[in-house]
């Protein structure tokens, strides 16, 4: 590297930390951090799963790089405790003292032979020799009285789930942010909030609720962001959202497979789907706001007396939605046993064969298919591929939100899932157990909608032995 040439953030990171392994995810992450270091981004929110190099990039390497670019910057690192913030500060100081750093940024130094009068260097504060820049560290609820800050780096302001679940801790954190962080900032100050998500009302949740935010899907978004807008980036441990320029992974791919494989992440999700969605996927939800939660009862064997073998299918409404087809049996007491599920965002020409195969393996005698949004054509294809099953299509005219909410208790009381269903259909399981009562808070309602349809068919709509036509247009056989 040519002396005094300004390297990219990736090249800088590899020069001072040659042991780093920069995957495509890390290079994207570091490209965003570089734009922030250059002043192209003023307000940045990034959520990253645990153990994916979040703090190494944003809280250790980034402040060292920024002080190299501008040794007059006053940077503050904040975390949930003063001890952790001081630890980050010492790591940055070690980089500033290194020979590799001196070769890249010779004008930024904290080394002193004869110390200048009044020079400060502790684990909480260090000054750049010959410049106005300094690096401060502070714990949540700590004081920065009298200090002007050009750049705030806020890394994990909650220690653990217990703190994040505490309304008192969250309120104190928000008060500290508004009364300390914001009051030390000026017109040109920059902020970066880099968290593992814990709760929907954590600092990221509060900022996204109260201030203008833009979800970042491409590096080009940096050039279009408004002066007061936050750029928001969420890196999912297991890709669940559609591919973007920023994150081109396909559904189900791991973010850092060399360290956190798909199999390992799925095992973590099985332990606690709600917490996994928050910490690893960046989609927190409070348990008290869940519609079903972990209330589904499971079965080990199907009943001997079965009166119905059927299925219910809801085709995908739009490109990001799931096709959901549920095969089930009903016993003489009216209890519904789910036997198989197809839950997929693949094109219809692929899912129609999966569903038809499920009909055969589950012995489905009658299949109900919603005709909305292309479902009629899907039903005709199913009848052609599964001639032994009678396929009926119908138009669903009920309000989706009202149907799901009003039938939720009936679903939990009457539906049984097979033991280990979280292993059989992990995405279906995830979208049911994390489904929120607040309708607009849900990313996907396809699983809840289809399961509600099953209950309406077999229980709600057959009260008194008659169909309630307010919910359905009369089924038609193909």
Q: What spatial order of strands do you see in the largest sheet? A: 3-4-2-5-6-1-8-7
- Helix content, binned percent: 25-40%
Reported for the largest beta sheet, the result is:
8 strands, mixed
Total number of strands:
16
Query: Into which percentage range does the β-strand content fall?
Result: 15-25%
Q: Examine the coordinates and then state which fold CATH places here, giving the name of the CATH topology of the largest domain.
A: Rossmann fold
Arithmetic mean of pLDDT: 88
Alpha-beta content class:
alpha/beta
Termini separation: 71 Å
Distinct helical segment count = 16
Low-confidence stretches: 464-475
Any idea what the radius of gyration is? 27 Å
Query: Any idea of the CATH class of the largest domain?
Result: Alpha Beta
Number of domains: 2
Task: Please identify, by name, the CATH architecture of the largest domain.
Answer: 3-Layer(aba) Sandwich
What coarse outline follows from CA principal-axis ratios? elongated
What do these coordinates show?
By secondary structure, the chain is α/β, with parallel strands linked by helices. It folds into 2 domains: 9-284, 3-Layer(aba) Sandwich (Rossmann fold); 297-477, Nucleotidyltransferase, domain 5 (2-Layer Sandwich). The protein is 36% helix and 18% strand. It contains 16 helices and 16 strands. The strands form 2 sheets. An 8-stranded mixed beta sheet has the order 3-4-2-5-6-1-8-7, with helices on both faces. A hairpin with an 8-residue loop joins β10 (306-314) and β11 (323-331). α2 (24-37) packs parallel to α3 (54-69), α3 packs across α4 (82-97) and α9 crosses α10. The longest helix is centred in the N-terminal third of the chain and has 16 residues, at 54-69. It is elongated.
């Amino acid at each position: 590297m040519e002396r005094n040439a300004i390297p990219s953030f990736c090249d800088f990171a590899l020069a001072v930390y040659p042991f780093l392994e920069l995957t495509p995810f890390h290079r994207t992450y570091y490209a965003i951090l570089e734009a922030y270091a250059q002043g192209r981004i003023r307000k940045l929110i990034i959520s990253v799963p645990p153990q994916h190099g979040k703090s190494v990039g944003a809280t250790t390497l980034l402040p060292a790089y920024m002080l190299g670019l501008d040794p007059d910057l006053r940077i503050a690192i904040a975390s949930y405790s003063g001890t952790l913030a001081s630890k980050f500060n010492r790591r940055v100081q070690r980089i500033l003292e290194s020979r590799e750093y001196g070769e890249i940024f010779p004008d930024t130094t904290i080394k002193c032979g004869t110390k200048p009068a009044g020079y400060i260097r502790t684990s909480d504060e260090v000054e750049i020799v010959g410049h106005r820049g300094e690096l401060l560290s502070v714990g949540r609820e700590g004081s920065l009285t009298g200090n002007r800050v050009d750049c705030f780096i806020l890394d994990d302001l909650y220690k653990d789930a217990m703190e994040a679940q505490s309304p008192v801790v969250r309120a104190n954190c928000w008060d500290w942010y508004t009364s300390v962080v914001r009051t030390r900032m000026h017109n040109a100050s920059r902020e970066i909030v880099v968290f593992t998500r814990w709760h929907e009302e954590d600092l990221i949740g509060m900022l996204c609720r109260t201030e203008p935010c833009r979800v970042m899907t491409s590096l080009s978004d940096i050039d279009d962001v408004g002066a007061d807008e936050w750029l928001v980036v969420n890196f999912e441990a297991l890709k669940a959202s559609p591919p973007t320029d920023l994150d081109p992974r396909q559904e189900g791919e791991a973010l850092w497979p060399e360290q956190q494989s798909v199999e390992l992440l799925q095992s973590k999700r099985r332990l606690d789907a709600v917490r996994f969605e928050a910490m690893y996927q960046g989609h927190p939800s409070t348990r008290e706001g869940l519609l079903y939660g972990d209330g589904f009862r499971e079965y080990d064997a199907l009943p001997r007396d079965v009166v119905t073998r059927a299925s219910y299918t809801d085709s995908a409404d739009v490109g990001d939605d799931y096709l959901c087809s549920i095969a089930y049996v009903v016993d003489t007491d009216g209890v519904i046993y789910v036997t198989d599920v197809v839950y997929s965002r693949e094109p219809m020409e692929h899912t129609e064969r999966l569903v038809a195969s499920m009909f055969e393996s589950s012995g489905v005698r009658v299949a109900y298919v919603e005709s909305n949004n292309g479902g009629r054509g899907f039903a005709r294809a199913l009848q052609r591929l599964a001639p032994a099953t009678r396929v009926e299509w119908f138009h669903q005219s009920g309000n989706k939100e009202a149907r799901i909410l009003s039938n939720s208790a009936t679903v939990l009381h009457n539906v049984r899932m097979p033991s280990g269903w979280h292993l059989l259909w992990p995405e279906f399981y995830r979208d049911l157990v994390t489904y929120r009562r607040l309708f607009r808070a849900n990313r996907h309602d396809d699983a809840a909608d289809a399961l509600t349809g099953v209950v309406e068919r077999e229980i709600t709509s057959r009260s008194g032995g008659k169909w309630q036509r307010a919910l359905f247009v009369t089924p038609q056989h193909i």
